[in-house]
Amino acid sequence: MENNNLLELKQKALQEIEQASSSDALNAVRNTYLSKKSELSSLTSKIGTLPPEERKSFGAALTEVRVAITSAIEEKAAFLKNKELDERLSKETIDISLPGHSYNLGGRNPFYVIRDEMIQIFLGMGFEVADGPEVETDLYNFELLNIPKDHPARDMQDTFYINENELLRTHTSPVQARTMEAKKGAPVRIICPGKTYRRDDDDATHSHQFSQIEGLVIDKGINIGHLKATLELFAKKMFGEKREIRLRSSYFPFTEPSVEVDITCANCGGKGCNMCKGTGYIEILGGGMVHPNVLKMNGYDPEEYSGFAFGIGIERVAILRYGIDDIRKFYQNDIRFLKQFKKMS
Length: 345
Known about the structure:
Strand order of the largest sheet: 1-4-5-9-8-7-6
CATH superfamily of the largest domain: Bira Bifunctional Protein, Domain 2
Mean pLDDT: 85
Largest sheet: 7 strands, mixed
Number of strands: 9
CATH architecture of the largest domain: 2-Layer Sandwich
Order of helices and strands: HHHHHEEHEHEEHEEEHEHH
Radius of gyration: 39 Å
Oligomer: single chain
Structural class: alpha+beta
Low-confidence stretches: none
Number of domains: 2
Number of helices: 11
Shape: elongated
CATH class of the largest domain: Alpha Beta
């Protein structure tokens, strides 16, 4: 008798679910048949009053009815949800005549454009990018680079000391020393891009903070011809195939021999003009062969290994590429300046 009641209840519920035309009507059906006070719940409470031989079959039938009603409600709910969404969208309209919002956008800072392009050029030559801390110890910033205490070269890099042993790095060369130390005598081919700090006057050509990309190659049989070829390829990739470089003797405590590297003037093509002061060349970077003392202090046998190093100012390259007349413009975030380079972003 109870099973007949369940069957009638199931049929009635499924019929009402089918007839429900809205989510609210379907929720009313749900409450009627699945709430705690529903007839289905009342029948559930009667299981304990039935004879033991009827409990199992009645419980199974009760579960089957509940599952059937629940599944039917969920299916109808999904149908009604999609139907109501379609109806709402068909009634809604968007006034596309309203004006939009415009934002005053600048462009990407040319510093970052040049930095990324320089990195890509050297990555194409097989270099890896290495990084290191901007707060350095005296050991890595000076001593392991053949600049002992009281060495006159330290006066050329007067900087900001935090205490007697720590300072803001004056070049990215400490990354080279750290890399050599980590490589433990293995070949090295890295570039070290990053910020550097030196006490200097802030004017059109100087800043107390600027950025460098330094390079270091160490292996057996490396000579100054490899340095020249590397920098010549860089100059052509960065400034054009017609550019040429020249090496002039110089002095850096961590290289021997040391050279200043000039590039033919873009304005006159090397003939001489006011921009290059009649020389036909403009200085762009410094480099040289890694000093034997630096190799020895950082775990390399100078009789077996040799190498070259170079350092390029990123802002200086950007100034030469785009004819920028004041280094401070890179740091001021003036949107009028940045807009000139919007197409490069």
